[in-house]
Amino acid sequence: MARSAILNVMVSAATKAGRGLVRDFNEVENLQVSRKGPGDFVSLADKKAETTIKTELMKARPGYSFIGEEGGAEEGTDGQHRWIVDPLDGTTNFLHGIPLFAVSIALERQGVLVAGVVYNPVMDELYVAERGGGAFLNDRRLRVAQRRDFDDCVVATGLPNLGKGEHGRALRELGGVMLHAAAVRRCGSAALDLAWTASGRFDAYWEHGLQSWDIAAGVLLVREAGGFVSDAKGGETMLETGSVVAGNERTHAELLAHLKRAAAAG
Ligand code: IPD
Ligand code: CA
Ligand code: CA
Questions:
Q1: Do 241 and 233 contact (CB within 8 A), yes or no?
Q2: With a threshold of 0.85, does the pTM exceed it?
Q3: d(CA 15, CA 96)
Q4: Near ion ligand 3, which residues have CB within 5 Å?
């Protein structure tokens, strides 16, 4: 596939940060057995990765706005473009030595997602998409799964961590979906959940309570792989509300219906 110049910049930032994360991840595995644990080390790894990404992106496009999980928002002079970055999505996994985490970088133009990269550095899986240009995994074109029967489907979700609210809603929704899907998965990285929905590993995915940087790149990946993505009401406010529901046309609609039933029962 021919990548645009801007996508190349994003890929180079994501892979550079990803290589640093893998080095730090190997160290985390050693710190795991220490009494203090790897907590401080991980938050440093996270910040380092964001600095690497921001430096690369700002060097290429100095005027663009930037929002990253670690450093917050910075208004650019260009007024049209914004980077949306999560340097390490799947921090809890990373912290516990579980090799499922990713770098996520999206680019918005006038509020529309135009490019996205999700990179899983441990598996060396690079997911890229450009608006209107399709989605790819390491140069292989992606298409969402084509399953139609929900009882054949593997559905991914995210559950609220300790201290995050809405445990009741999560349990109601999980109960509803478990009664109809073949299996449910909770892998711990929203960016990868969406990338894996784009690549057909998951038939559908839903989660609430997310931030724009968790899902911006992944939303574009799913759409460019021919999938459907909405918020919990079927609308377009995923990045604002932090709720996301994704799948093919049919699994998306059925998942949405299960979630609405759970909401009505709440
Ligand atoms: C988290 C992951 C996780 C989701 C959480 C997010 P982080 O991001 O995407 O899958 O369930 O809500 O906060 O903290 O690892 O960057
Ligand atoms: Ca995240
Ligand atoms: Ca993060």
A1: no
A2: yes
A3: 22
A4: 69, 86, 88
CA of 89 to the centre of ligand 3 (A): 4
Domain boundaries, the chain: 5-141, 150-265
Q: How far apart are CA 85 and CA 213, in angstroms?
A: 5
Residues 49, 90: Cα–Cα separation, whole Å = 13
Three-state DSSP at 40 gives helix
Could you give the angle at the alpha carbon of 126 between the alpha carbons of 133 and 30, nearest 5°? 160
Taking ligand 2, which is a single-atom ion, which protein residues have CB atoms under 5 Å away?
Answer: 86, 89, 214
Report mean pLDDT in 10-residue bins for the chain, 266 residues. Answer: 92 98 88 70 88 97 95 93 97 93 98 98 98 97 97 97 87 97 98 98 98 98 98 97 98 97 88
Domain 150-265 has CATH 3.40.190.80: yes
Domain covering 5-141 in this structure, CATH number:
3.30.540.10
Q: Which of 225, 231, 212 is nearest to 106 (CA)?
A: 212
In testing the pocket of ligand 1, which one of 196, 197, 208, 214 has its CB within 8 Å of the most ligand atoms?
214
Q: Would you say the C-alpha torsion 133, 239, 107, 203 has a positive or negative sign?
A: negative
- Kindly give, in sequence order, each residue whose CB lies less than 8 Å from that of residue 205, ignoring residues fewer than 6 positions away: 155, 156, 157, 193, 194, 196, 197, 244, 245, 246, 247
